[in-house]
Amino acid sequence: MAFATRSLVRQPARACVGVVGIAAVGALLFDMLLLSRGLVVSFRDLLDGVGFDVRVLATDAAPIGGPRLPDASAIARELSALPEIAEAVPMRVTDAEVASGGRPIACALVEMDPGRRRPWTLVAGSDLPGAMPQSAGGETAPPLLVNRRLAGALGVSPGQTVAVRVTCGAERAAMRPTDFRVVGVADFPFDSAADMSAVASRATVMATCGGVGEADQADMLLVASQDGYGADAAVSAIRRRRPDLHPATNDEIVARMQQQGFSYFRQISAVLSTITMLFGFLLIAVLLTVSVNQRLAEIAAVRALGFSRGRVAADVLSQSALLVGTGGLLALPLGAALSVWLDAILKKMPGIPAALHFFVFEPRALLLHAVLLALTAVLAAAYPMVLVTRLPIAATLRREVV
Q: What is the spatial distance between Cα 347 and Cα 344, in angstroms, rounded to a whole number?
């Protein structure tokens, strides 16, 4: 390694080109490795962070937008009685219009009865009370949580009253606006940067819509498994109890999304990783081959002085390792900074939750990055190593003298 270092120091321009080139290629390779599983890891963290490890749907369709569960309250009570389940909470997302002294603003209204687990993060004010509800027509306005963007668009803060018109059903006439009291501002995990969302209790929304009926439907049930049982045991218990339902653990939902929605980014990552490795291989191979061709007389001289074939081959391999290793180390901070910039660009796509990330660091990505660069260094040095081991010593020195 010391001999190879001196050889590179004698050629600073070529060494700098190799290091800078590998740093650029390695940074892109590192980002592609982060992208290959970034969405999967981030989506899994997003699901687990909500506090529920099982989702129960009416069909195998998408969680939001597919057929809804009828009699969701009764199903939730039935499932909550199972020993494998700690909590089952119906959730439904419907359209609504919210107004506060101006024109109404369209938003997504999440209907959910707060339990022990709240799938949102309170940032201002107070949370929804666990005991529900006041009647929609009572003296006290029912509570409402809004996200930051909706609170800013309405110009409201906790304690103020807003008028909410709920879409109770596709075939029902629009209901009159009902006064709700904004009790707090919260961040909802699946909101994008442009989403306007609010959450109220299902009991309040059902009262606003004039009774249960269609309002007692739910997009899904959020289920938390009991400690000591786990998500798989909860899913098995639900399937035994209600074969007509379609429960899925977080792992199953992530695997389904990985095969359908996230496969595109995995394919892009594989293609770009292959291309970047090819560029790195060509760069180092060309630099080492040119260096060897310019040093044939020197190599023949050290061979004549007693250097073995293995020694001169190890010299070439060491130069390749130094170039790739130094460039690879520089690639890590460069790739990390680049991933932040690229992640901000990709998150501007519509419908992407603000808490979701495309580039997520994993120890396996760092290990794979090192393995791929090491493989690149070995392959790039292969042809120059063949040149120096097959070099005819006497003929090369004779040409040098002539």
A: 5
Question: What integer pLDDT is reported at residue 329 of this predicted model?
Answer: 93
pLDDT for 335 equals: 92
Q: Who contacts 347 (Cβ-Cβ below 8 Å, separation ≥6)? A: 193, 354, 356, 357, 358
As given in the structure block, the two tokens for residue 286 are 């060309």
Which amino acid, 306?
G
- Give which of 108, 95, 201 is closest to 149, Cα–Cα: 108
Number of residues assigned to the chain? 402
- pLDDT tens profile 239-271: 998 888 888 888 888 887 777 666 777 788 888
Convert the pLDDT of each residue in 190-222 to its tens digit: 888 888 889 988 888 877 776 544 557 888 888
Contacts of 344 (CB under 8 A, 6+ apart): none
Centroid of chain to Cα 240: 33
Q: What average pLDDT does the segment 144-171 reach?
A: 84
